[in-house]
Amino acid sequence: MLRLPPLRRRSGGTFAALAAFFTVVFMLLGIGGASALSVPAPAAAGTAVQHTGVEGKKFAIATDTTFAPFEFRDGSGNLVGIDMDLLNAIAKSQGFEVDIKSLGFDAALQALQSNQVAGVIAGMSITDERKKIFDFSDPYFDSGVQMAVAKNDDAIKTYADLKGKSVTAKRGSEGETFAKSIAGKYGFTVKALADSATMYDDVKAGNSVAVFDDYPVLAYGVSQNNGLKIVTEKEQGSSYGFAVNKGQNQDLLKAFDTGLAELKANGEYDLILDTYLAKTEVTEQGSFFQLVADSFPALMKGLWLTMVATVLSLAIALVLGVLFGFFKVSESKIMRGIATTYVSIFRGTPLLVQAFFFYFGLPQMTGQPINVLTAGVITLSLNAGAYMTEIVRGGIQSVDPGQLEASRSLGLSYVTSMRRVVVPQAVKIMTPSFINQFVITLKDTSLLAVIGFAELTYQGQQIYASNFRTGETLLIVAALYFIVISILTQLSNVLDRKFNK
Amino acid sequence: MSTAKISVRGLKKSFGSNEVLKGMDVDIAEGEVVCVIGPSGSGKSTFLRCLNKLEDITGGTVTVNGIDLTEPKVDLNAVRQNIGMVFQHFNLFPHMSVLQNIMLAPVELKKLDKAAARAKGMELLKRVGLSEKADARPASLSGGQKQRVAIARALAMNPGIMLFDEATSALDPEMVGEVLQVIRDLAAEGMTMVVVTHEMGFAREVADRVIFMDAGVICEEGSPEAIFSNAAQPRLQEFLAKVL
Fold first, then answer.
1. Does residue A341 sit in the same domain as residue A479?
2. Are B93 and B108 contacting, i.e. CB atoms less than 8 angstroms apart?
3. Per-residue DSSP letters for A296-337?
4. Measured in Å, how far apart are chain B's first and last C-alpha atoms?
5. Do A270 and A341 reside in the same domain of the chain?
6. What is the largest CA-CA distance in chain A?
7. In CATH, what number does B6-221+236-241 get?
8. Which end of chain A is more exposed for a tag (fewer CB within 10 A), N or C?
9. Residue B95 pLDDT > 70, yes or no?
10. What confidence score (pLDDT) does residue A253 get?
11. Are residues A205 and A303 in the same domain?
């Protein structure tokens, strides 16, 4: 798994490196995603500090993009979850309004520190380190690591039953830390995986006998019929809190605490938690066709973005390919050098590294944030442009040099000779390669899922991250790619036959 | 000082470290037909290709119609319009019809409008005996027909000079005659021509002068009579003994 989606950990320590990495991912995701995610910070966040009351005020509150069950998007794309429901209920009871900004965990903290938002609620553990820079509300949730096994597995009930077996935990998570701390004592091995859905699949497939994960995440998964059952009590507990900048927005903090206490008193708090964590029989998995129907809107949205990225990238790549392709066959050493360098760089480095570079690296170096679609299209067009350059070069060079000589000997200029004699013949030769590159680029858009570009593969990941039906969802996604590529390939071939007789 | 149509002085051409032409001096007068003969690799084709600067010239000068092609600012396209060239492998444009092949240069260079270019093309096709092939694609023609079209194409800009680079070498034997006849007709009309050929009989028949090249230099030159009947140089004698 390339992306660490929805259920990632949020305490420091070993996770620091990845956290730094995702800072940029989610910050840019926030900036580049749907417009709902990227509303600039309103003045309310700053001005509210000065007032004593919160009533009638509107506060910008930052949160993560996906951290089920605390915040995630439901089937229709609305942000839901324990954090969201709690915050909305508190806001309602205390008479203030919230403007939720789904930025990503690290980006949310940065936004808070730079006063772009008034507070952060993102399933954030209250730690001593964080207390130095933030003021926390009363804890609103007690977490902890639990062990789960396959639903039909009656052999594993305690840590002692794990002897000689293999378990899984999320890389860099508290679950992993805990599992490793007891692995020696109970004689089992720990395999680290990137995200919850993969871990659960690993257990269901029997590769691992148990998974160590955070209680709310596990409980939510079980409530969604992920095929597991929890067999142990919470370990290494930590508490989640709502945070404001140290010394600021104290009225908001106070209102949160008051509201939280009220919700706990009147039972609404338990209701909200039960919505997401209680094992309910009603959420039985629907049929495969129900899954297709449910996921269709999100997948279509993804497919649309896939097509947008593909078409934009290919259009630019074609221009780049023609430009540098001609550079490559030109008589100027400098031009050939430029084209060769360009091709070497983009053909000689992985597309994934390029995507990371344009998305995280470049903005860090220039200080200029970049929209995820822009970064994706830059990556794909520069990459495909390198291959297009070679296609164009190959096409031109496969035309008999005698053609150019004959044309030049007539007194036609180089440009005219290329235009009237060489290129028309080269295009015919190049067309199949162009179609091939088109298909490759379309499929390559799926790699942009790792930078959070909400194309088809990303949408698929989002879906199985919350419903745990990995195989079926991927089948649907693959089928969509297959259908679209088949149609477009057929179309291209028809056009090729029509125009390149 | 020379009134020659083509004047070559000290012409040298190297490909990398391989010197193919090692200093050639030739003058070709208006209306003269010069045939260039010699063994493979002697530099005949390279010499011919230097005359319209299809090859970069390493040293010396080539002056055509008083214009020194080695001058950096020379308008080669303008010079080439006055020099028709026919290649061993025809080099017809396969994506165009026969007539379009011929019309391309006059139309692109705005010498003629389309209608006039078409008329000119048909006239040239008639001259090479291929009027009925105007709309055919080159691929459907025989080798001899292709080369006749190539000659018509080279004539489309009304050049004062024609260069033939082994124009019959790639042809089946029974097609050589029809192509040579077209060249013969051009010679009779007084066209200035440089013909690189392996057809010794043809060279003897049409040439005003024959140049024998060997190893990148002019080894011997003179009238066909002098070259073919009274060869002085042992290398020429050896060559003629092989090809005749």
1. yes
2. no
3. HHHHHHHHHHHHHHHHHHHHHHHHHHHHHHHHHHSS-HHHHH
4. 39
5. no
6. 94
7. 3.40.50.300
8. C
9. yes
10. 93
11. no
pLDDT attached to residue B211 = 95
The minimal CB distance from A425 to the residues B94, B104, B156 is found for B94
Provide the pLDDT for residue A327: 94
Strand partners of residue B192 = B161
- With CB atoms and an 8 Å threshold, state whether B54 touches A405: yes
pLDDT in tens, B35-66: 999 998 899 999 999 999 999 999 999 999 99
Q: Print the domain residue range for A192.
A: 143-238
Q: Do A295 and A271 lie in a common domain? A: no
pLDDT at B217 over 90: yes
Contact call for residues A41 and A100 (beta carbons, < 8 A): no
Across the interface, whether the CB atoms of A412 and B104 are under 8 A apart is answered yes
Query: Beta strands B161-165 and B18-22: pairing type?
Result: unpaired
**Within a domain: A13:** no
Identify which of B6, B182, B167, B171 has the alpha carbon closest to the alpha carbon of residue B87. Answer: B167
The single-letter code of the amino acid at A19 is: A
Q: Select from A274, A187, A179 the least CA-distant residue to A232.
A: A179
CATH of the domain at A477: 1.10.3720.10
- Averaged over B128-157, what is the pLDDT? 93
A-B CB pairs within 8 A amount to 62
Quote the pTM value.
0.69
Complex prediction ipTM: 0.92
A335 shares its domain with A451: yes
Contact A30, A112 (CB under 8 A): no
| Distance (Å, whole) CA A283 – CA A223 | 7
Q: Are strands B59-64 and B209-214 parallel, antiparallel or unpaired?
A: unpaired
Which SS3 state, helix, strand or coil, does residue A232 take? coil
Kindly state the tokens that stand for A246: 């140290």
Put simply, whether A400 touches B (Cβ < 8 Å) is yes
A469: which 2 tokens?
Answer: 């039906």
Q: Which residues contact B14 (CB under 8 A, 6 or more apart)?
A: B20, B58
> Between A470-499 and A288-329, two packed helices, what is the crossing angle to 10 degrees?
40
Helix locations, chain B, DSSP H: 44-51, 76-81, 98-108, 114-127, 143-155, 173-188, 200-206, 224, 234-243
Angle subtended at Cα B106 by Cα B100 and Cα B109, rounded to the nearest 5 degrees: 120
Residue type, A239: S
Taking the CA of residue B163 and the nearest CA in chain A, the distance in Å comes to 10
Claim to verify: residue A334 and residue A456 sit in the same structural domain: yes
pLDDT less than 50: residues of chain A:
1-52, 282
**Using CA atoms, how far apart are residues A339 and A92, in angstroms rounded to an integer?**
61
What is the longest distance spanned by two Cα atoms in chain B?
Answer: 56
Interface test with A, best of B92, B108, B161 (most A CBs within 10 A): B108
Q: For residue B52, give how far its alpha carbon lies from the nearest alpha carbon of chain A (Å).
A: 7
A304 and A453 assigned to the same domain = yes
Which residue of chain B has the CA closest to A425?
B95
pLDDT digit string (tens) for A361-418?
888 788 777 888 999 999 999 999 999 999 999 999 999 999 999 999 999 999 999 9
For A134, the 3-state DSSP assignment is: strand
